[in-house]
Amino acid sequence: MPSLNICKKNQKSKINPKTGIIYIIRSTKDINGIYRNGKTIKFKQHILHRQRSHTNVLEILYDHETDFIDQVKSCLKTSLKHVQYKKRKEFCQVDFDLIKKTLNSCEKIQSKLINKPTKKLQNERYYIYTKIIQII
Fold first, then answer.
1. Which residues lie closer than 8 Å to 61 by C-beta, 6 or more apart?
2. Max intra-chain CA distance, the chain
3. Cα-flanking dihedrals φ and ψ of residue 45, to 5°?
4. How far apart are CA 71 and CA 114, in angstroms?
5. How far apart are CA 93 and CA 106, in angstroms?
6. Model's pTM, two decimal places?
7. Spatial distance between the Cα atoms of 18 and 113, rounded to a whole number of angstroms
8. Element (H or E) spanning 37, and its range?
9. Which residue, 11, 107, 114, 129, is most buried by CB atoms nearer than 10 A?
10. Burial state string for 18-44 with b = 16 or more CB within 10 A and e = fewer than 16
11. Which of these, 26, 73, 34, 74, lies nearest to 50 by C-alpha position?
12. Nearest one of 92, 74, 70 to 26, comparing CA atoms
């Protein structure tokens, strides 16, 4: 039995837990309509860490808990790419309600796609992304 306990202790923890939070914060600059989105698993620690680098208090406008954090974040980033404020940054210059609608639709898409067969998955994702872009 001692070897069984050793094996249990040496088990690796999950590297990518699926549940996490996608958040939207207002830009710390005085520019209207600029928002930043991000993802995290430990929300409070992440926000406190971000706050240390800013003199102003970060204004968290929306946080959304999801079971498909990586997929939803990827969908959101792809959908909002054409309204990016700066290259390679996650700042968007768009209406806040539109970001929320896009985030919620990405969540619905991923929950539907998770149970689909893998043969058609790539074609369906392309079709869904083009529909989202048409909505925006």
1. 24, 25, 26, 35, 96
2. 63
3. -65, -40
4. 10
5. 19
6. 0.66
7. 15
8. strand 34-40
9. 107
10. eebbbbbbbbeeeeeebbbbebbeebe
11. 26
12. 92
Residue type for position 60: I
DSSP result, 77-114: HHHTGGGBSSTTS-EEES-HHHHHHHHHHHHHHHHHHT
53's CB contacts (< 8 A; 6+ apart) are none
| Cα–Cα distance measured from residue 14 to residue 16, given in angstroms and rounded to the nearest whole number | 6
Of the candidates 99, 105, 107, 97, the one whose C-alpha atom is nearest the C-alpha of residue 83 is 99
Task: From first to last of the 136 residues of the chain, give the pLDDT tens digit.
Answer: 455 555 455 554 444 446 899 999 887 666 778 888 889 888 888 888 877 877 777 788 898 998 888 889 999 988 888 888 777 677 888 888 999 999 999 988 888 776 655 555 556 666 666 666 666 6
